[in-house]
Design brief:
Blueprint lengths: L2 E5 L2 E4 L9 E6 L2 E6 L5 E5 L2 H13 L1 H12 L12
Antiparallel strand pairs: 1-2, 2-3, 3-4, 4-5
Length: 86
């Protein structure tokens, strides 16, 4: 699973040819979640409020890049790294 970003211990990844809706995977310690790119909501799994706030802040800033990576993943193309939250 290609890692596209890492910040504050949060790891963001995407699978090639993953199922709809467009989403990304989040790991933070033992926590795991799928977050929708368009809705920026947790589709599956669970994140602490702090981790979720950081992830949604980052995703809102990089929504266009996330959508581009989703399209690249569906086409089996190399994913691009996205700048971390600072």
């Amino acid at each position: 699973m290609p890692e596209i970003c890492r910040f504050f211990g949060i790891i963001i990844t995407m699978y090639h040819r993953d199922h709809a809706p467009a989403h990304f995977h989040v790991r933070y310690g033992d926590q795991k979640a799928l977050v929708g790119i368009d809705s920026l909501t947790v589709l599956e799994g669970n994140l602490s409020p702090r981790a979720l706030n950081l992830v949604t802040e980052w995703a809102a800033l990089h929504k266009h890049e996330l959508r581009q990576n989703w399209e690249r993943a569906q086409a089996l193309k190399e994913l691009r790294k996205i700048e971390p939250l600072k």
